[in-house]
Amino acid sequence: MSHKTGRWAVVLIPSLLLYLIPLPGFSPFQSHLIAIFLGAIIALVAQPIAMGASVILAMTLLVLTNTLSAPRALAGFANPVVWMIFSAFIFARAMMLTGLGQRIAFLLIRGFGHSSLTLAYCVAATNLIIAPFVPSDTGRGGGIIYPIARSLASAFDSEPGPTGNRLGAFLMLVGFHSTYTTSAMFLTSMVANPLAAGFAHSIAHIDLTWGVWALAGSVPGVLALTIIPWLLYRLHPPQIRDTEAARSLARLELEKMGPLSRNERWLAAILGAVMLGWVTTPWHPVPNTFVALGGLCAMVILEVLSWDTLIEERRAWDAVMWFAPLLMMADELAKSGVVTMLSKSAFGRIEGWPWLLGMTALVAIYLYVHYGFASMTAQTTALYSGFVTAAVATGAPPFVAAMPLAFFTSLNAGLTHYGTGSAPVFFGPGFVSQGLWWRLGFLMSLLNLAIWLGIGLAWWKVAGLY
Questions:
Q1: How far is the C-alpha of 386 from the C-alpha of 458, rounded, in Å?
Q2: Pure H helices in 47-99
Q3: What's the angle, vertex CA 458, arms to CA 454 and CA 463, rounded to 5?
Q4: For 163, which DSSP code?
Q5: Closest CA to 263 of 97, 106, 144, 98
Q6: Tens of pLDDT along 199-234?
Q7: Which of 17, 179, 202, 454 is least enclosed by beta carbons within 10 angstroms?
């Protein structure tokens, strides 16, 4: 059996069994919906074909098997979440093409890169500043943060192998762990966050707007970004402590870049206006998605990006093609009662526990089950709604039932070198061994549980969020 045939078998065998043998307690419609949805999720992990093709195939099968009508199957493309994600990908493209993201990073390094630790904080701060505008940890971490960290390591002759621990390994670890931390902090900093917000609205009946998400993530997020570089500095210290050469490198790069270009100035103004529109959502009637689309239109009108460049942004269109059917299937599972039934069956033993204990157990399970996932989005799609339903059943306040699980949709990525798209980018060069990567990832997971469920719960109470 070839490797690809084996992947297809992993996808098709459980899906066909579920389709042909209805689950006890579920109607044929519900069983068919579960079977096709499960096949799509397994395909996202096993990847016998591209992700987009997998979910389009699943959407098509729903219609061909008469499980759903064509209008219902195509309803995901009308979901505003899809176009919010699309717009955010275009913002990321503009940040990279204009050089604005790199300029922000070098300005921070020039001003604050006095030592390896302050340099690490510059990397984390860069992640924090650009996170609201770059919805992909792969795009932000792999496309902006990693190249900067890699060039800084090279400036100190720190390369994979014997010299890796001079500075490179430390910067790779800080770059990675700050990437998924900032992914948790904003609604628009990770592609699955709006998906989680949509589930939270339909199940827990709360609106996780951009402002609410940012407020909830601010204190635990900043605290984590403060502690993590220092803790990594203690656990795996770099051999080089004086990094004055990094400031010299930043000065040289900024000199090469020259003054802000016309496109950088316009992009900064547009992104500032979009951010203002998102933050002030409670005081105006324009939905977040159309604030973002307005920014996109402004970029095209002002020629910051050409229409051809927008059309050629493959990742944005790919996200539309595979996110829309996933949103539709997840919505159908919720509407049909499947999520509620599965959650009650799976989490029945937690019912009756004090809600704080039950919520803690659910978050821990949700975190560590990510060892079996290579995608934050796949886990969000497969598990988030069920876990939120179970959390609500414990008696937890709706906000507390939804928000910690939404945060750990990103924070779970720190466990392995394959748990998210940016992980292979930082791990791949070989600065850090797999064993060390996993050990530090587990320690960071314990820290995140303490910060986001400890300090976080206290902060949300003080902020009046529950």
A1: 25
A2: 51-64, 70-73, 80-98
A3: 145
A4: T
A5: 98
A6: 999 889 999 999 999 999 999 999 999 999 999 999
A7: 17
What angle (nearest 5°) sits at the alpha carbon of residue 456, between those of residues 411 and 84? 55
Taking CA 381 as the corner, what is the angle to CA 329 and CA 67, rounded to the nearest 5 degrees?
Answer: 15
Q: How far apart are CA 431 and CA 95, in angstroms?
A: 27
Are the C-beta atoms of residues 290 and 322 closer than 8 Å to each other? Answer: no
- Report d(CA 362, CA 356) in Å as an integer: 10
Given CA atoms 354, 339, 84, 57 in this order, what sign does their dihedral have?
Answer: positive
Run of H or E residues at 31: helix 28-46
Q: Which of 344, 339, 338, 274 is nearest to 304 (CA)?
A: 274
Q: Given CA atoms 360, 463, 195, 78 in this order, what sign does their dihedral have? A: positive
Q: What are the structure tokens assigned to 420, written together?
A: 């998210």
The set of residues, in sequence order, having a beta carbon less than 8 Å from that of 373 and lying 6+ positions away, is: 45, 379, 412, 419
Q: What is the pLDDT of residues 138-196, one digit of tens each?
A: 778 877 888 888 878 887 788 998 998 999 999 999 999 999 999 999 998 988 899 89
- The answer to whether 32 touches 65, Cβ cutoff 8 Å, is yes
CB of 330 closer than 8 Å to CB of 320: no
Q: Match 């066909």 to its residue by tokens.
A: 16
The dihedral sign for the CA sequence 15, 20, 26, 27: positive
Residue 39 to residue 59: CA distance in whole angstroms: 11
Task: Please name the residue that has the structure tokens 């990675």.
Answer: 176
Numbers of helices and strands, H then E, in the chain: 25, 0
| Rg of the chain on CA atoms, in Å | 22
> Which amino acid, 370?
H
Cβ 220 vs Cβ 455: under 8 Å: yes
Does the CA dihedral 25-34-10-386 come out positive or negative? negative
**Residue 128 tokens, joined:** 């924090």
